[in-house]
Amino acid sequence: MEGIPRPRQALPPETAPYVTAVYGTPAKLRSARRNRSSKRPATPAMTIALAAPPFLGAGADALFGLGSGWGLAIGAVVGAVWSTVLASRRNVLSWVAPLPALVVASVAVAFGMLTNVGGTPLTRLVESAVTAFPAMAAAECAVLVVAVTRAIRSGRVDGSAHE
Q1: Where are the domains of the chain?
Q2: pLDDT, tens digit (0-9, with 9 covering 90-100), for 1-34
Q3: What angle do CA 118, 123, 129 make, to 5 degrees?
Q4: Which of 3, 93, 94, 119 is the most buried (most CB within 10 A)?
Q5: pLDDT in tens, 39-94
Q6: Cα gap 84→151, rounded to integer Å
Q7: Is the pTM of this model over 0.85?
Q8: How far apart are CA 16 and CA 93, in angstroms?
Q9: CA–CA dist 33, 138 (Å, integer)
Q10: CA dist 98 → 1, 115, 122 (Å)
């Protein structure tokens, strides 16, 4: 009868010591499954932490007529640090590390296209990209600082040469 799943068959009792030695006790297996399922890459908290401060900073720049300047840069750094701390606690830093620059670029372009009224759309796009570059660089530097600090504090970096 192909296609019909067979029920799982129990292992003979004499194999229990070997199975436990290779796979661990059932309690450890349940614990490993529980820990693995709780580490989702994207969570609403990380998304909000990454996107909200740059939006607020760009909104402040637009409200006070400063362009994509200090508000966006400060918001980008705060968002990058906040999301990096959350991601490093969940061991999913590789998912969050490249994102601050993309978020800052998209926020700057969106606010630049909506608030600048002069010139062609291409000119506004280039101007937004140029003015957002320092904020993108500051956000990525903040990610690096937080990641290195967390690695040193957790003991993952010992400073010795590996052979």
Answers
A1: 11-39, 44-154
A2: 566 656 566 666 666 555 555 555 556 555 555 5
A3: 115
A4: 93
A5: 555 678 888 999 999 999 988 988 887 655 889 999 999 999 999 998 888 888 88
A6: 12
A7: no
A8: 38
A9: 38
A10: 50, 27, 26
